[in-house]
Amino acid sequence: MKKCSILAPAKINLFLDVGPAKSDGYHPICSLMQTVSLYDTITAEKSAEGIVLSCPGTSLPCDERNIAYRAAQAFFRESRINNAGVCIAVQKQIPIASGLAGGSTDAGAVLLLLNHLFENPLPMEVLLHMGSSLGADVPFCMTGGTAICRGRGEIITSLPSLEPIYVVIARGGADVSTGAAYHMLDEAYEDKLPQKPQIWNSLSVDNWGSVWASMYNVFESVILPIHKEAAACKEILSQAGASAAMMSGSGPAVFGLFQNKYAARRAMSELQATGAAAFLCDTCAGPKTL
What we know:
The protein has helices at 67-79, 102-117, 124-134, 138-143, 178-189, 197-200, 208-214, 220-223, 228-239, 261-273; strands at residues 3-18, 29-47, 50-54, 85-91, 146-151, 155-159, 166-171, 216-217, 244-247, 254-258, 277-282, 288-289. The protein is of the alpha+beta class. The strands form two sheets. Strands 1, 2, 3, 4, 5, 6, 8 and 12 form an eight-stranded mixed sheet that branches. It has a four-stranded antiparallel sheet with strand order 9-10-7-11, covered by helices on one side. A hairpin with a 6-residue loop joins strand 9 (244-247) and strand 10. Helix 1 packs parallel to helix 2 and helix 2 (102-117) packs antiparallel against helix 3. The chain is globular and about 55 Å long. The two termini are 17 Å apart.
C-alpha cells in the first residue's frame, strides 16, 4: 500500500486583535500569523476501506471528535473516491490546547496529504474552502509563511516572508479553552474591546523591527493575570534577551523572538528548569511533504 508523510507546522500570532461579536456570535479578528518549525508529523497509508486514526502517546480521541479525523471525512466526501480507506497516524510535538493551532495544522495537513496520496483529485482552492469549514486557522496552516488573517481567520493576505529568526516557545500550566478565552474578553470589555484601529485597518510588515513595534495580543489582558505559569514564562523570555515576547493565540503558550541562537538556547534551558515545556525553532514556510 502507498504511504506518505507530511510535517505540519505550529503557528504563532505576532499580532492579534479581536472585534465585538457579530450577530452570528463570531468575533472578527485581525492577526499577523507566522508558521514556525515546531512540527507534528502525520503519516497516511491507503487501506481497504474506512478511516483509522491514531495519535500515539496522547489521550486525544481518534474519532469524529478529532479535527484530523473530520478532515479525512471531508476529503473523501468531497473527492467522491469510492471504496477507499486510509490509516492516519499523528505524531504530536506541538503542545495541545496552547494557542499554537496544533489541531488546525493537523487538519490542514491531512487534507493536503490525502490529496497527494490519492493523486490530487481536488484543486487547492477547494482544499482551502474545506479547511475553512473545519476551523478558522486551518487555511492559514495549509499555506503557512507570513500572512495577515481577517474575518474569522479565513481571509488571508500572504506577505513576503520575513528573515528567519529564532523562536523559543514555552508552555506551562493548565490548558486554556479558546471559547472560554473569548467569553472572558466579552465579560471584561462587552462591546468595547480595546481595538487597535490604526493597525487593524493597515497592518503590514517589512522587517522585524516594525513587527516588534506593533506586536500585540488582546487575549493577554484576560489570560496572563490568571495564568501565572504563562506570565512567568513570558517574563523569563524577556529577561533572557528576547527582542520581543508575547502569548500566542488564546494561550497559554508564549514565545520569544531571538536574533542570537545561543541566547535562545539559554532561554530554553531556563524555561525547562522551571518545569515548562520549551522548544527552540525558527520561522518557516508551510507544511512539508516528506
